[in-house]
Amino acid sequence: MEGLLQEREWHTKSIEEVSGILQASINEGLDFAEIRRRQQKHGLNKVSMKKKEGSIVLFIRQFSQPLVYILVGAGIITAILQEWVDTAVIFGVVLVNTTVGFIQESKAGKAIEALTKMITTEATVFRAGGQKMRISSYDIVPGDIVVLRPGDKVPADIRLFSSRDLKIDESLLTGESIPQEKAAELILEPDTYLANRMNMAYAGTIVTHGHGIGIVVLIGDQTETGRISQEISIAQEMVTPFGRKLSQFSKILLYVVLGLAATTFVFGTLQQNHAPVDMFVASVALAVAAIPEGLPAAVTITLSIGVNRMAKRNSIIRKLPAVETLGSTTVICADKTGTLTQNQMTVKDIIAGGYHYETTATGYNPSAGMIIKKQQISTGSSDICNESIKKEDVVTLSYSGFTASPANVSSKYPLVLEQCLIAGMLCNESELLENEDGNWEVKGDPTEGALIVSALKAGLSEPRIEHRFPQIDTIPFESHLKFMATLHLSKNNTTSSNSNYIIYVKGATEEIVKRCCYIMLEDHGELSGSPRRWLTQNHYDEKSSYHEEGTINTGYPYDIKKFVHPLQSKDEIIQLAEDMAKRGLRVMAFARKDISVNYKDKVEISDIAYDLVFLGLQGMIDPPRDEAIRAVDACSNAGIKVKMITGDNLHTAIFVANQLGLHTTSSVGIDNTDGEYIEKYEGKFIDKRPYSVSALTGHDLAISYKQGLADVVEKTDVFARVSPAQKFDLVRALQSRGHIVAMTGDGVNDAPALKQADIGIAMGITGTDVSKEASDMVLSDDNFVSIVSAVEEGRAIFDNLMKFLTWTLPTNFGEGLVILAAIFTGLGLPMLPVQILWVNMATVITLGIMLIFEPKESDIMQRPPRPPSSPLLTSEMIQRILLTTAIILIGVFTLYLWELNNEGSSIEVARTAALNALVMIEIFYLLNCRSLTKPIFQIGVFSNKWIVVGILLMVLLQIAYTYLPAMNTIFQSAPLDLETWLRIMVLAAIAYFIIELDKWIRRMYRSKDRKSLMAIKKF
Hints:
Elements: H1 15-22, H2 32-42, H3 55-61, H4 66-80, H5 84-105, H6 110-118, E1 122-127, E2 131-136, E3 145-148, E4 157-169, H7 171-174, E5 180-181, E6 200-201, E7 206-218, H8 224-234, H9 241-270, H10 276-290, H11 295-312, E8 315-317, H12 322-328, E9 331-334, H13 336-340, E10 346-352, E11 355-359, E12 371-376, E13 393-396, H14 415-426, E14 431-434, E15 440-443, H15 446-457, H16 462-468, E16 471-475, E17 483-491, E18 499-507, H17 509-513, E19 516-520, H18 545-548, E20 564-566, H19 570-582, E21 586-595, E22 612-621, H20 626-637, E23 641-645, H21 650-660, E24 678-681, E25 684-687, E26 693-697, H22 698-704, H23 709-715, E27 718-720, H24 724-736, E28 741-745, H25 751-756, E29 759-763, H26 769-774, E30 777-779, H27 785-824, H28 833-846, H29 875-901, H30 907-928, H31 936-939, H32 945-963, H33 965-971, H34 978-1018
Parallel strand pairs: 9-23, 9-28, 19-22, 23-27, 26-27, 28-29, 29-30
Antiparallel strand pairs: 1-2, 1-3, 3-7, 4-5, 4-6, 4-7, 8-30, 10-11, 10-22, 11-12, 12-13, 14-15, 16-17, 17-18, 18-21, 19-20, 21-22, 24-25, 25-26
Helix pairs in contact: 3-5, 4-5, 4-9, 6-8, 9-10, 9-27, 10-27, 10-28, 11-27, 12-27, 14-15, 20-27, 23-24, 27-29, 28-32, 29-30, 29-34, 30-32, 30-34, 32-33
């Protein structure tokens, strides 16, 4: 038995085979001795925890980053120079960076802990000779006989052997929004995917309806939930694009700086015959000048500010690097149920009385009145999907003793529609309840709940109708019957003496239609020439058996018999239902039968075998969020692809994708656009519209696309009926093509993919603890549009980081080159190491950091995503850095030479002038960097008040550095005269205008290129 407990295809085996393998009696259960033996052998029924690294090891590992190496090196150098304040600052930055990384990484293991909670519950089992008892799910063992009732959480993976009307909500595992009907007697094929295994119940799912009994086949880590925990544990923690590129850049910078320092020392000592001590100081000065000490601090502060900004826009960041990753996202893999959709089944289409109605209201709130667009079914095409909406009349229904208040007095009241809605309300076992928060929820089957809501939104009063037609008996829905029937007493008056019976039936269209001999149509008079004539027999003046029952009193103020006609074309109704299903709707058919007064008060299946009156069809769907539609459109404008990955039905997924606007794939190769909306083409299901959606099922992926998965994922918009493992594989396939992938989700089944993705986005309200702990970001309002806001903030933060890099690198490189030029020309150092540390730390804090608060530019969401393969520094940035570095080198070194040769000036004055020139150029260059493409007057001179504050503060610090005696002593600086300051300001202004001229020239070239491209497109 041990080896067979690893078996995963329990759905392929009969009950006798399963009980034989597990050596358990389905009638009596296990005895207590056997239970203890199995617990010792298999352990408790819980997900095991992965052994985590110790806190000390985790903390030390944070130091293994090139930027940290640079900072530690700079700290050691300053310590050698006995500059203890600077040493403390630098090591303080190191400590902050490593502490933040330690805190974030220490949370990674909590996802599996949350999984343990998912299957912790109580269960009813049969043990020791059939004795029923309630036990903790921890104590469940393979072979236990478990009883399932509504509201129970399934404690383990179970092979059912008895079920009655059993439905289980498996959305956490499969993504299917509708509870799965179970049929214990079935034996399924091996390749049946998880969502269709009707003879199984899985750990962590919820029983919503009916009863079932089954035998436990897998526990703990072996369950489907346990497998997900293993996938979470092996999911690779992705390094962010910016972090990856910054790490590579830092390594190169580290080697270059150390190489230059060593070359300077050797050259100065051997070629210039300088003292080794002097050359060591010069090498240290060069290294300190070229190292951007403030870069790690700036990155950390920038990301932290981004976290606060995003929190205000309902996006809670759990891991700092996720902030900048959002700005680089190229693909969002979105789970459908509850993420893009409302997770509330809603009736969208109704066909009744020969007319097609479309509802506009969505959700469970019955007070949001429903406007119905009335459209007559055309004889030219039975496919209502192809017809444009013809508003013959629009009516607003309101219940008032079976009357209506038409919006247009000329409108005929849709009586058959009312009958169809009443059938859905009465032939029902679910309830619509308002919770303490004022939100509406369905207790029972969401499909039945949608029928109640559609009737209430039409103005029908549930209490009054139920009082007028009290339920006497019912035939519950069962999978083999495919219908449900309820028997009602129809009271015409307050007394029951004058009454008759009505049977309402709902179910699968084929089952209902084949039992119907009649149909209700809205037309009151002769139907000759009516476009609905194809639904009825040719001779309407003949009396049918239904019309001969003249004694029937239906309890309505109108004569039902006038609307009833013999049904001829059952195939046409089935075709209508199929057309609705192709649009992703779950379709239910409705019928009624009127019974005489002397009828028995019990309904039998034989009573509804024939002579039913067809009332209509209702098609429902879990509709997309309105704000999600806008969010998808914004993603499209921003160059971000959105792909739907769901465990739901293929046609439903395609329909929702069309409503959302996921039209990213062109149907190249399809010439004929007539006929069916959805057809299979080269292994893909394609919705044939001007903008088509291509879709694949999980079965297609498993059978046909094991090889070349990355190419398939790139070209496909929708993935339906996808297993948790396939979601994980799809994310990895996209990453293998260089995409930066964001994955949204809320269920247990999403957790591995959330962790594997470059950024996992969980739902804060409906999301499970598992999905939240596996994610990088949580949406506090469960609103997909918040992702767009987060992407916008992420792009702005990344933009500001690039501005900071463009500002800080040439200043560091310029300092280094000035020192290198002095050494190679045999001059004294223009700046001492302690002076360089002063200017680097002071300018980063007062100037560079202020770029972080720069408002986002207006076109931030019209730009395409930054290509993942692009280097950290683009060619334009490199050219800007080289240009600025050259300006700093020429300007500062020229001024240093001028002051050295100026009669009466000392080396201290020359160094002070050179340092102040460097600072002023940095200040003016900071204004250039507020936008890398636009002039400052376009973005607003005072739009970033922190820039103004930072500049004033830096000017005050430099005045103190230049004129305060204490500062002169510490930093070996000296006061400057007015003429020197004038030369410094002219030099800084020239630098500013050169950079602005470069930006202007580049704008002209880009504008010319755009005009050329537009001309080509127009041609």
